[in-house]
Amino acid sequence: MRxxxxxxLVGQFIARAVADEILSKSYIESYKGKVDCENARAALGRATxxxxxxxxxxxxxxxxxxxxxQRPVEQLVQEIDMLLKEYQVSGDVxxxxxxxxxxxxxxxxxxxxxxxxxxxxxxxxxxxxxxxLKMLKSLWESIITVDQMSRGFERVxxxxxxxxxxxxxxxxxxxxxxxxxxxxxxIVKELRDLCPSRGRxxxxxxxxxxxxx
Length: 213
Description:
Layout lengths: L2 H17 L18 H18 L17 H18 L2 H11 L5 H14 L4 H16 L3 H21 L3 H14 L5 H5 L20
Helix pairs in contact: 1-2, 2-3, 3-4, 3-5, 4-6, 5-6, 5-7, 5-8
């Protein structure tokens, strides 16, 4: 059995055992900072994420998997949140791709793109920026279609005025991120050029007199 699958299953087992009160809630905390094995840390990390998602409403009785078509949208959103949180901890692009494939919802991949970009906008420093670039590049080359990638970006474009209210640097970071995605071949020039910019004057058609708005 591959190690990545092994620690995932062990993490799910621990989370379910804590949720069912077979293990105490302090079980995971008692091992923090005391585990040298990388795979053991990954298993404990997955259990921690699962339990935090449970507090947010994710049902751990489905922790062993349910077909994509049978999952309500709310659960899929939470699963994608969990995938991104785990990726932030592990940095394992291959594991992120495997988890996305297991969701079996290719029509919903735009949610991951959207959530990942918002994560970049809300972050500080360059770590998350670079990690999400790396992940989107890999997923673009393997599983996410042009349509789903574009829909994810376009959703952020539409909502960035609201995001900006809570994240003052949102426009600046978005422009930088979009430009990097274009340079890496993740998005096409047309999608890059649609990126909104606060204060940018937009040239309108000749029918409007060729004026700037």
